[in-house]
Input
Amino acid sequence: MENKKVAVIGGGLGALSGAIRLARLGFSVQLFEKNPKVGGKVNEVVLENYRFDTGASLLTMPFVIDELFDFAGFKRSDYLDFVSIDPICRYFFSDDSEMDASADKAKMRIAIQQLSPDDVEAYEQFLNYAEQIHTLASEIFMFTPIHEFRKLMKPRHFQTLFRLHQIDPFRTVHQSVSRFFSDPRLIQLFDRYATYNGSDPFQAPATLNIIPYVEYALGGYYIKGGIYRLIDALAAVACGLGVQIHTSAKVEKICHDGKRASGVLVNGEKIEADYVLCGADAIVAHDELIDGHQNRRERLNRLEPSLSGMVFLWGVRAKHPKLAHHNIVFSSDYDAEFEQIFKRQQVPDEPTIYIAITSKADASHAPVDGENWFVLLNMPYLASGQIWEKEKDRMRSVVLDKLKRLGFDIEDRIEVEQIYTPEDFSQLYASNRGSIYGISSNSKTTAFKRIPNRSRILDRLYFAGGSVHPGGGIPLVILSGKMAAALMAEDRGSNLC
Ligand SMILES: Cc1cc2nc3c(=O)[nH]c(=O)nc-3n(C[C@H](O)[C@H](O)[C@H](O)COP(=O)(O)OP(=O)(O)OC[C@H]3O[C@@H](n4cnc5c(N)ncnc54)[C@H](O)[C@@H]3O)c2cc1C
Output
């Protein structure tokens, strides 16, 4: 078969996953990334003696990465070392109690026993319930391009389609979690998983309880050297398969004749291609890269963006043995936090604080007497009335004060600092209104409303990445690249789906 040409837009994980598969399938692939390096929201920064991952910090479902390496014909262990994290996260509650969450069932039982003895059995029951959702929902919602009617209507999916009510779509995450646990701290802990795909536990369907199952039953991981090593590895695999990666190369337009994509415009030059794979945010692509199709653009802009975030990178000249690799300092009123974020698009008065410190696993990421703190706060997507220059100073003080009350008085120990607001996420990664996980899953129908992997308006145009099916987060965007590549290959004439 002749080598069909593909132009890939963006160098995020979805695009890299798609590019690798397409190259392996015999396509001739060129990838264009507007930034000086690939990786998108999986990024790294070095500030003096401190090294930081600036985006994703926790890896789940690592088998998705293994499968990509296998497909490409490379050995993952030659490139990447996955490190199981235990505890996965240390939780600090507003009543000053703490708990270490672990994928080790026995340890988790003891931790819950110490926090709330009445909830030990509830945890078992909750995991069984979440496993049932996983069993019923994962094949369709994570691994199948659900907008392709013929692929959805496979006999193996009928069991799920007839039992959709058992994936608990009509209750919210919070309502469902509250039915299992009696202790408000455990309710808050399990509610939190809705934020893993940028959603609000008080609105998102309880189907998202699949996420704690994935974490507690399948584990949480770090990549030795930093999460960005994943990008180095995938870029090396892509290059090894002949993908031409162009950085500092912004795609200005997707070329088309109204019906079919025919290439991309980069620096005023048309790059001809038989197919286009867009790994840039699909809503921004419809807004800025695809001329015409106004109705489609308006419809997509009505989809609610996911959470955004505010990130503080702090190189701290002090050691904190009381902190683990991943830590959460909860707000005292989670409901109020999400009310402000999603209903009013306001910066929360009292944010939940996430702290990841990779120097706990990789000593070289900070000086011997220091730590590299990545601090993430949930934030609303961009909306009018927000003044981020002001908010970042306000939030800095709020966070440092709260940490000081907890016994982490770091303000005078901060040696290097970098701050990212939702405006920065929008500019750096061209993400829709600064969202960090694409579209929120705050409605029961989001899975079906999310943008399909094959364009609805142009032939030969496909989408990968967090803004399209199956959604945001490392494993899902890698799967989006798989689905887009498989659909493209199928359209070329080879059946892979
Ligand atoms: C702060 C933060 C924390 C996170 N934590 C986690 C976590 O712990 N675990 C997890 O699994 N996930 C996490 N995520 C989510 C995860 O990082 C993302 O879902 C995933 O990396 C997105 O990949 P993507 O394929 O959508 O591409 P993106 O990362 O969105 O990259 C898109 C790329 O396209 C480029 N681009 C855009 N427009 C153009 C154009 N016109 N021309 C050329 N290039 C263009 C951009 O510059 C960018 O590099 C986090 C994200 C953030 C920001």
Summary: The chain has three domains: 5-45+55-82+225-303+442-492, 108-218, 307-429. The CA atoms of residues 149 and 452 lie 11 Å apart. The chain has a mean pLDDT of 95. The two ends are 19 Å apart (CA to CA).
